[in-house]
Amino acid sequence: MVTSTPHRVGALLVGLSIATASSLHASERVAAASQAFQQVQDNPELRGVPRAKAIEDSYTRLFSRFESVDLATLDDGDLPVLFGDAYTAAFYSKQPRHVDRMAALAGELVRRGIATPAQWRDLFQGYVLVRQFDRAEQIRTAHPAVGAPVPSVDALPAKIAGPSLWTVADGGRRLVERRVDLRDTSILVIADPGCSFTQWAARDLAQDAALSAALGSAQWIVPQTGDLDARAVAAWNAEHPAFAMSYVVNEREWPMVATWETPTFVFLRDGAVVHEVVGWPKAGRKAELQTGLDALR
Prior knowledge:
Layout (H helix, E strand, L loop, with lengths): L5 H16 L4 H16 L6 H16 L14 H16 L2 H17 L4 H13 L3 H10 L9 E3 L9 E6 L4 E6 L7 E4 L5 H11 L2 H6 L4 E4 L7 H10 L5 E4 L15 E6 L2 E7 L7 H10 L2
Helix pairs in contact: 1-2, 1-3, 2-3, 2-4, 3-4, 4-5, 4-6, 5-6, 6-7
């Protein structure tokens, strides 16, 4: 029996939708593309990095046809749909071109006088997401309610191979870039201070001195998102110095990470994953963490 991979299923849905939409008017084509895009997002068989890639690929296939369309010719109702789907593509791909598309659509929304505070917030977060902080701060200056102030960044003088992190300094007002040598890193903890599951994990580890000590060399890293309130990470680090977090600069520098769900514990030997623990229920996953530690011996 022939089976279809999740990616192939998504491609078939996209192909059928494009064929159906080819004879429709512009607004109907936008709606059809958006519906097909949502179907790929809703596919329960897709998770982690493969899900992100499928979403980005489907966006490109579905929406590239609209890039040459004069935005002034579209109906008012089309623009928020296109804007929202571009944001989704940016969220999963971390690609600046999708944020540029959001900016173009925002310009047309402004021209028509129908831009909303939520759209300014999404554009701000889009620029933070792709690490274009100057543009993000320009939006925040004009629309202060969109989010927290953007920190200044002390970047490394030259880009060399390997992943990097931003360490939070000055109470969250400054980020200091540092390189990570994966040869010296055996445990990654993908975490977020606002995630209740991350909070449960930290609570349980703090109450287990032996396990906490065994995980003492772990790098606690915050995923690349558009929500970068470094003050929250600074507060977390002050309260949980044993589990101090740093920001991932670019997720693409961490190809060994299969999912950016929080919390995820990744155990590495010579840069290769030997064990992974995803999530933290109230009952905890201490035994699974011990399995990961044993795999490093």
